[in-house]
Amino acid sequence: MRKTDDQGERREDTPFDLESAVRTIIAKTPSHGGGSSSHFLTHALDTAAVAEWLWRLLASEAIKQEMDEVAGGHGRGLILFRWICALHDFGKIAPLFQARFPEYAAAVRRAGLTIEGIFTESNSGYRHERAGAYLISEALKDAGWSARRRNWVWPLIAGHHGDIHGANAWLPSKAGGQLLRAKDKRWQEVRAALLHTVSREVGYPDWREAPPAKVPRRSTQLALCGLLKLADWLSSGLAGISDPKDVTMEVCRRRAAELLAKEAPAPGWGTGKKEPGDAELEERYGKRWLHTALPGAVLDLTRRMPDGGLLIVESPGDTLDAGLLSAEIMAARTRAQGVFVGTPEWSAHHDVFRRVRKWLGKTGSEYEQRAALLHELRALDPEWSAAKYPGSSLGHYVVKECPGESDGEPEEFAGEGKGKKLPVDWFFSHTRGLLAPFAVAPTYQVLAAAVRTQYVMIRMAGLLGKVHVLDIADVVLDDRMRVYLLEALRWLGQARVPMVLMASALSPGDRGRLLSAWLGGAVGNEGYEASEPEAPGAHPRVTAAWIDDDEPRITVRGVDAHPGERVTVELAEESADSLKGDRAARQEADRRLARLLADRLGPGQSALVVRNSAERAQSLLPSLREAMDATDTVVVLHTQLAAGPQAVRARQLLERLAPGRPTTGGERFVLVADQLVERSFPVSVDLVVSDAAPVEQLLARSAALRTPSDPDRAEPAPAPLVVTGYADHPAPGPDKEHRSPVFPAKSARRYERRWLVAALALAEEAAAGNGWALPRDAARIVARAHEGPTGLPPAWRARAEAVWRDGKRRTAAREAEAAQHTLARRGEHHAQNLAALSYLSTPHQEWDLAGLIQGSGFPVETLAVIRDDEGYRSLLGVRLPADGSVKDLPDSLVEAVRCGAVRLPPTCRQAGELLAPLPAWSAKGGSGGARRLCRSRALVLDPGLRTTVGGRRLRYDHELGLVDEGPVADSPAV
Q: Is-contact 695 759, C-beta < 8 A?
């Protein structure tokens, strides 16, 4: 007798057996479940078992303690978390999901359950995570859980695929009965039976009678959602169990243990970290350094914070070691898993990584190998690549600059395979990077956790368990990035995450906003405004903020009270035509600057020239070569050099110009760079030439100057700071005193014009007077620059008015645009749960986080390859197969190819975004190691290293980098 109608639905007279029906519910099909199907109970308990491991390995001690309080007793936090994880796919116990797979739907119907033949999860747009949130919420409501207690649970289930919707997305109108059969008694019985079994197995049989005692913080909820998502991902790789009767929690624990035994996250410090005493710190850092003014102030204020807090360190010089010193103490007091070190996007990440690894080795030899460099081109670090690919041919390309000539076939990498397995490899899979216990990455990785993006919960899970040491020098100057920084501070402050923020100098307004954001998050008051105590104007400056008995505390320490070293300032104005791109005028300006350098530098002296664009750095080199002696050395370092040579050159320069290194011989040395050396690039020189930049950047750049007291300083002493890159000749006429100075277009795009005008006005004042006493005057200089026209010299106030008004309008517009994408909207920080967190979330790609955070105008990354008669070779000389494929070739060879990654000039940005990977790099083509190339935009050069992009002629020069030779019609003959 037929039991179904023409659409395949169950007839009412179909026999129903609850046990059989429960066994037919599928959660994973072979394509999504380790090669075989998994019943709901199997996948539920597998996920709970994996979640246990992640709880032990990745959850911070603060989260564990808070969740124990939430769940009502010691150890119950894990039980509650395990239970939620087990029920993440509860929405699959519904016809909309089961109907998606006809071969399994038939068994469900035979068991006596109704499945509609029209709507499924695939064609209805109503997915199982939304259904699960609704069904669980209804179950908790029926059990008597209050709205407050249940409304933080269902968003975790709704978000286990990366987006957290609101309650209004639970149930579309057409789904009232057709999709869920929410009122169907047989489906209700199946859900109730599985809910009962899962609850019993995970150790929460009394979930009806013992709901959570309180609601966890939203930051904790978000982190738990991230760990849930990760547990689901990992458990999905386990094969199914054929008979559901064999599924128990103990069986699934063994399966999870076997899974994670193959590859598991390396642990961090955790509860084993002990706070170092004075003797240990003196041995680690050196007694002399530890008791100098800045480290001493950092150490003293850090120890005043009983449970960690926010420490702001302002100094133009290198403060990384001081930040790590504070982080180690706060980590021990809060039992943090590890440390995240954030660097400027332009900085020398690999040098910071080396220093962090060395520091970790001093805290414990086992921790040095657990540091992760979260950078796409981490293989450029010689220490990392030597550990990952020992004895590899890759070393040839990461320890020296290669000429680009083909000197080997792919066979030179033969036998290298996938490389050696490292303790941190687990963290390099999709979205896992921030979970690493010790990580070095651009600061924007933290800011991305403050933006409504998919998988933001996994980022938050990684951030909450660490102390953060962030260089924010470039962040506070960018209107868009500053919004995301403040949002991140609110969320991390809510979780009381210890943080060290480093900058050359901050305005009172910026410092107050940082303090207000972290403390406001900690006290749960979005409108909180920090009241900073009076402090001397000395600089460097250290500010500590923490919570004591639920009350905010702030202490400020001015470090240096002495007058400081006198830094004279000189102006070297250019013509407006030079700044607007006129070739002849530019050459003349370059020749004048080159002559100035040649005249000012004495035997054995060195100079740092910082330009605001790679183009200006490139154009200066020929004039410098002409003006300097043949025995002198001139080097360029900028962001349009290929990644491999850039990293090698940076390491050589850091060694050559290292502070404290004595000068030898009469050779003069000039480094011409762009913002690559802005921060985290500690060098020491006798003369600094800088394009006009905000005063914070001028102070940071001037920190490279040797002071008269430096024992390694060569004589005679030149005028140390020269400011150029501007034109200030008002045209004749009645309004000439109101005309704004002219700056290069790239300077005006990178920095707000009002900050450039303020810096120029203050530099002109210093040049006419006695210069600046640094670092003492730094705080006063920055405060005046941010005060508005009234803080500038009288002659500049009228000229700055219009620029200041326009700048404020631009800032407000950019901040408003960025605020549309922050994790919580204005007025929502008081919310008790994550409902609708992902509403209007920001579309993005995981590999484009920097562009997401900085917005339009971020440089386009390409991978340069050379096409000749034989096929393709990499920019640095690795010969590839004829089609450029790296299929089945060693990973180390792929990394050698990626040494040719290079950024396009801003003039090619729009056209560059349309560049595509080589066809042979397609992931669909089974390209093996090319998986990391399938998203790389190929910049295909001819044998002469030239190409055309967007109507502009580009040429790669192994010394100058990627050069824009202008429009095709104006380019030199090839």
A: yes
